[in-house]
């Protein structure tokens, strides 16, 4: 079986992934960090008010999908269409565009705060598709950070954590300016514009 290290998961290093689960019979995907503490198990830290956490309580199965494509994260974050296929060993779907994925089941969870838990997962299967390495792009890095911060701004606002939310909004402003400075790619510009627009709908001024 392919190992976690084979798909770039290093012990103690947090990576951004897309966690897919079933909500009833409907595939659900969410952007989420994951880490392996020992090279054999996985840890994720979902917020307790999310659909992913509720799905894990219901079925205990998940797939951690690995991708370096920010447009896939973008579609997941904003609920745009994503294609799925069946996994081999767990009751959770695989994101078709993932370059690699880990099929797992949750073993135990412990609270990190009143809003978040740490879930330890047993790996059942690791698989990778052939992928061509891409050169590093500051624009894509900034776009990823903007999307991650946006998901947290929503959670913090719902929890009444206005100071934390405002700090992330300021970071998103900085990333938007960076993206516009280093990229003229229409896709990059459209995606960060959408992030800024959605932040505005939450009541924050994110115009750089």
Architecture overview:
Keywords: Coiled coil. InterPro entries: DUF447_C, DUF447_N, Split_barrel_FMN-bd, UCP018747. It comes from Caldiarchaeum subterraneum. This is DUF447 family protein. With 208 residues, this protein is α+β, with helices and mostly antiparallel strands. It folds into 2 domains: 5-128, Roll (Pnp Oxidase, Chain A); 138-201, no CATH class. It is 36% helix and 28% strand. It has helices spanning 51-59, 70-77, 138-158, 162-182, 186-201; strands spanning 15-23, 26-35, 41-44, 61-66, 84-86, 93-95, 100-111, 117-128. It has a 6-stranded antiparallel beta barrel. Strands 5-6 form a two-stranded antiparallel sheet. The chain is globular.
Percent of residues in helices comes to 25-40%
C-alpha-based Rg, rounded: 17 Å
Distance between the termini: 47 Å
Shape: globular
- Structural class designation: alpha+beta
Key phrases:
208 residues, 2 domains, two-stranded antiparallel sheet, globular, UCP018747
Would you kindly provide a brief summary of this structure?
The protein is of the alpha+beta class and 208 residues long.
Task: Explain the layout of strands and helices.
Blueprint: E1 15-23, E2 26-35, E3 41-44, H1 51-59, E4 61-66, H2 70-77, E5 84-86, E6 93-95, E7 100-111, E8 117-128, H3 138-158, H4 162-182, H5 186-201
Antiparallel strand pairs: 1-2, 1-4, 2-3, 3-8, 4-7, 5-6, 7-8
Helix pairs in contact: 2-3, 3-4, 3-5, 4-5
């Amino acid at each position: 079986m392919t190992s976690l290290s084979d798909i770039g998961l290093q012990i103690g290093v947090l990576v951004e992934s897309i966690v897919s689960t079933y909500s009833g019979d409907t595939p659900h995907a969410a952007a989420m960090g994951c880490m392996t503490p020992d090279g054999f198990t996985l840890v994720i830290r979902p917020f307790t008010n999310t659909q992913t956490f509720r799905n894990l309580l219901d079925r205990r199965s998940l797939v951690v999908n690995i991708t370096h494509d920010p447009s896939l994260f973008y579609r997941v974050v904003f609920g745009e269409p994503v294609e799925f296929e069946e996994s081999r060993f767990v009751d959770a779907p695989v994101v078709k565009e993932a370059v690699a994925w880990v099929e797992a089941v949750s073993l135990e969870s412990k609270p990190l705060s009143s809003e978040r838990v740490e879930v330890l997962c047993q790996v059942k299967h690791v698989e990778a598709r052939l992928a061509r390495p891409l050169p590093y792009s500051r624009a894509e890095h900034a776009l990823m950070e903007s999307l991650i911060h946006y998901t947290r701004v929503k959670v913090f606002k719902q929890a009444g954590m206005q100071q934390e939310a405002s700090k992330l909004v300021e970071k998103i402003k900085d990333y938007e300016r960076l993206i516009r400075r280093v990229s003229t790619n229409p896709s990059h510009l459209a995606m960060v514009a959408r992030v800024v627009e959605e932040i505005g709908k939450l009541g924050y001024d994110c115009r750089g």
